[in-house]
Specification:
This protein has about 260 residues and is mainly alpha-helical. It has eleven helices and four strands. The protein folds into two domains: about 170 residues, no CATH class; about 60 residues, no CATH class. α4 runs antiparallel to α10.
């Protein structure tokens, strides 16, 4: 399913895009062009595939009572906000690939494995090892042949091919926490930008404050729903938001490849 332009899921996406992401250029004839429409268009096209690839779901969003209360308090549309956090999650995780550690890509690992199979055609067994050190070995020739067929690139879905051909690399254990916090910062910062768009939030902010405590809490709840960290205690204290903004203030994010 491709989302129509008037779908409520795109309402906040288009507002954020027009306010912060749209790139306009003027040609030699003086005509103005929007150069990066593929951001929202790509999201509309890949919406269902994105739903299948993310580590969270709509049920977790709907059942988060405090998040839903805050959306009501701030007079935000729940369907449109769901579309926005999906869009920003997909955009941010794609753009933050530059934070990942230089290890083997999917393509490099696959090429090495194919070379091994070509040089050693008579595979007798395949062993799987779990995180708790348990192992399982397959030695059945028919099953081994079947697994080899399933590894062929032409058998992949379009979404799998996109991931396979990307430069996505695995995080090392030492850098996981820091990289995850940086990505959390970018996601939180973009939600902050959205809430600062005139007419979006109905809440009155104190003095010169650019964001209210309720808006901060909404962002923290969104981070939790989107599973940006394993420790839920981080999202019970507004200080976590303040620390994210302070620790990574001014940090730049690459443009997304979407």
């Amino acid at each position: 399913m491709i989302l129509d332009i008037d779908n409520p899921l795109l309402a906040y996406v288009l507002k954020y895009f027009s306010s912060y992401q749209a790139v306009l250029e003027i040609d030699e004839d003086g005509k103005t062009y929007l150069m990066n429409t593929w951001y929202p268009v790509g999201f509309a096209h890949w919406y269902e595939d994105i739903l299948k690839s993310i580590p969270f779901n709509r049920s977790g969003y709907d059942k988060h009572e405090r998040l839903q209360e805050l959306l009501t308090d701030l007079n935000l549309d729940k369907e449109s906000f769901w579309g926005l956090i999906l869009y920003l999650y997909d955009y941010t995780t794609d753009a933050c690939k530059n934070l990942l550690v230089s290890q083997k890509t999917h393509q490099e690992t696959y090429n090495e494995f194919c070379a091994f199979l070509e040089q050693n055609p008579h595979i007798e067994s395949l062993t799987f090892k779990t995180a708790n050190k348990k192992t399982y070995t397959i030695s059945d020739k028919l099953i081994l042949d079947f697994l080899a067929i399933r590894l062929q690139e032409e058998k992949m879905s379009n979404r799998q091919k996109q991931r396979f051909n990307s430069e996505l690399r695995s995080l090392s254990a030492a850098e996981k926490a820091d990289s995850r916090r940086k990505i959390s910062y970018f996601f939180a910062y973009q939600l902050t930008q959205f809430l600062q768009i005139e007419g979006i939030s109905n809440i009155k902010r104190r003095g010169k404050a650019t964001i209210s405590n309720k808006e901060k809490e909404l962002i923290l709840c969104s981070l939790y729903v989107c599973k940006f960290a394993d420790n839920p205690d981080n999202y019970l204290d507004l200080g976590y938001y303040n620390k994210l903004m302070k620790d990574f203030k001014g940090l730049s994010m690459n443009m997304s490849h979407k």
